[in-house]
Predict the structure.
Amino acid sequence: MPEFLNPFSGKVPDRLLTKEELIRAVRLDLAAEHEAIHLYMAHAEATDNPLAKKVFIDVANEERVHVGEFARLLAILTGDEDALLAKGTKEVDEMAAELSVSPEPSPSKAKNAKKAGN
């Protein structure tokens, strides 16, 4: 869970972050973005005010963009993040196939399918 009380969580005083500390900080930032998405969507679901609902959902979607930015940064910094995430995706797809559940195409597969169809 993100440590919101300490604005410098993951920062070691009087020196720059090591690569490992930077990776840990980015993971913390990812967790904070996911927590913000959860919070804003919970607020959107808890109101019947159309404007507030629209704003909460819009802001939550902006946080999802931030998740993508931090995820890409993490992949670049670690070098193996994408491969491990792909492995996890494959494992779930295999489980879904065993249960005859049709998984949604991954964003990259959907994008490639659109290109092939054009």
